[in-house]
Design a protein that fits this description.
The chain is an alpha/beta fold. It is built from 13 helices and 24 strands. The protein has helices at 196-205, 219-224, 268-278, 281-286, 306-320, 323-330, 346-349, 354-365, 368-371, 388-416, 435-439, 452-462, 478-483, and strands at 2-4, 12-20, 26-27, 31-33, 37-39, 50-60, 63-74, 79-85, 96-103, 111-117, 123-129, 135-140, 149-158, 161-167, 172-173, 183-187, 210-212, 228-230, 291-295, 422-428, 444-448, 468-469, 472-473, 488-492. 34% of the residues are buried.
Length: 504
């Protein structure tokens, strides 16, 4: 090392560090020198093969006076060739298996060490192979306390010293679902791509445990920070309209509008569900807290597709047992459940203004699906046309139909992830919803809005302890999840403060 200054700066301390992107980096003893200029020679320690940077920082009475770096490389005739994993993920307890190729100098005798290391370089599992030959297989154990993000490192050993390193090109991940922990889910991708590694670490340190709707953010930064995922899945549900009462509507063919078709039309439904969840396999391998069926989606629905209507008729039969009981409830004279056809009357429209009622009924009269069994030839209302038991049964079926579809979504999720939980988030749910049937057919529910707290109170009363629920902080507060017995909370990355309302 050589230094020079315009004047004597007093005693200087030369802090010397060897930096490496692999092993071998270390800090050398501080060198004390003085004088306006001079040189000093430092003997470098034995280092494993690799690329290094020698960094020297000169400090004096006034603080840092100067610094310099010098790159260098250490070579070895023997080296680690390729580190190849049989698979890049596995459940906790499954072994990490793979192969390591070794390029040895002629006549050299080496041993091989294979390590599972965490993000800080700490060795969490090790396998020693006395005589690896040109290629060696390895198997490393995993333990419940290990993080979800591991590097696989191979070290070539000569005379007890590690002389060369090689690494698997991709990390090994252990899915961390954290179903037994309090969960704070943050919604939305980050818009700081050049600092994603730092920001994700900051979010994890701030208490975020799961990420949702991350779009194109690379998974490895989030996994390395210790977070898991709540994938924002395609699901075939429909978004509720922004205004007016939240009612399912059908298109000109009588099929559920704003969705991907009828929820009961086979075999297309099974094919769609399989496709929706197959798209999430990459997240599944990294650790999924819950598979979200979407935000702001309706939690009830039905349509006039023949498959859906037949299911409704069967549901009525199961509910009433016989047609006579249904006729007594509805005030009708059906000879069989098969005679029950779609009906549009004031019962279905009682919350609308008169002008809206007329418009809807006239539209229905021109729709061959809705026109069957139409009870009004005009827009004049009669008390006899109202059948509230019929309306209540239809609405109850719609909640049951949603729950049935949600259960089938969950069955598709568990085909790729046997530990899967699933449900909806960001739903403005009123207390007239069939909360019980929805809870029994999902494993996760994050309502929001002014009724979210009341919904969570009911969920707390009826759900098993394994059920995951809480408020999605939109028009509500973080503490409502705690006071209502929630074990999870969600927040939007732009609009919400986790400790206050979305309007902060």
């Amino acid at each position: 090392m050589r230094w020079a200054a315009d004047e004597d700066l007093g005693p200087l301390s030369l802090d010397i560090r060897i930096r490496s992107r692999s092993r071998g980096g270390r800090r050398l003893p501080v060198v004390r020198v003085r004088g306006a200029e001079g040189t000093h020679r430092v003997e470098l320690p034995r280092l494993p093969a690799g690329r290094y940077v020698l960094e020297v920082l000169a400090r004096g009475p006034r603080g840092a006076e100067g610094w310099a770096i010098e790159p260098f490389e250490v070579a070895s005739q023997s080296r680690v060739g390729r580190v190849k994993l049989d698979r890049d993920w596995g459940e906790n307890g499954a072994a990490i298996d793979g192969t390591v190729s070794v390029v040895a100098a002629e006549g050299a005798v080496h041993a091989l060490r294979v390590h599972a290391v965490d993000r800080h370089g700490r060795v969490l599992a090790r396998r020693e192979i006395a005589d690896p030959g040109a290629e060696a297989r390895f198997s490393l154990p995993t333990r419940p306390w290990m993080p979800g993000y591991l590097g696989i490192e191979a070290a070539l050993v000569a005379d007890g010293d590690e002389i060369a390193y090689g690494y698997a090109p991709d990390p090994y991940t252990i899915p961390q679902r954290k179903h037994d922990q309090w969960t704070f889910t943050l919604w939305g991708r980050l818009y700081t791509s050049e600092f994603d590694d730092l920001v994700e670490d900051f979010l994890a340190a701030s208490g975020v445990t799961s990420r949702i709707e991350t779009s194109h953010s690379p998974w490895w930064y989030m996994t390395r920070a210790g977070m898991n995922y709540t994938p924002y899945c395609s699901s075939g549900l429909y978004r509720m309209p922004d205004t007016g009462r939240q009612e399912p509507t059908v298109d000109a063919q009588g099929v559920l509008a704003r969705a991907h078709g009828c929820w009961n039309d086979e075999p297309s439904v099974s094919d769609q569900l399989r496709g929706y969840l197959d798209d999430e396999r990459d997240y599944r391998d990294r650790g999924v807290f819950a598979y979200s069926m979407g935000d702001e989606r309706a939690v009830f629905g039905s349509c006039l597709h023949p498959s859906c209507w037949k299911l409704y008729q069967d549901w009525l039969k199961d509910e009433y047992g016989g047609i006579e009981a249904l006729n007594r409830s509805w005030g009708t004279r059906f000879a069989s459940f098969a005679e029950i056809q779609p009906q549009v009357d004031e019962t279905n429209l009682h919350w609308l203004a008169e002008e809206q009622k007329r418009s809807l009924l006239l539209s229905a009269a021109n729709n061959e699906h809705a026109a069957r069994g139409l009870t009004h030839g005009s827009t004049a209302w009669t008390e006899a046309s109202r059948s509230y038991p019929r309306y209540i049964d239809r609405r109850s079926f719609q909640y049951w139909n949603f729950a049935r579809y949600a259960r089938r979504f969950g069955e598709a999720a568990r085909r790729i992830d046997p530990h899967a939980k699933w449900g909806v988030e960001g739903v403005d749910v009123h207390l007239d919803a069939d909360i019980d049937v929805i809870v029994r057919n999902t494993g996760w529910w994050m309502p929001y809005g002014q009724h979210g707290g009341g919904t969570n109170e009911v969920i707390r009363s009826i759900a098993p302890r394994s059920y995951r629920h809480g408020n999605f902080v939109g028009q509500s507060f973080f503490w409502e999840s705690v006071l209502r017995g929630g074990n999870a909370v969600g927040s939007n990355r732009r609009k919400s403060s986790p400790m206050g309302s979305a309007r902060c």
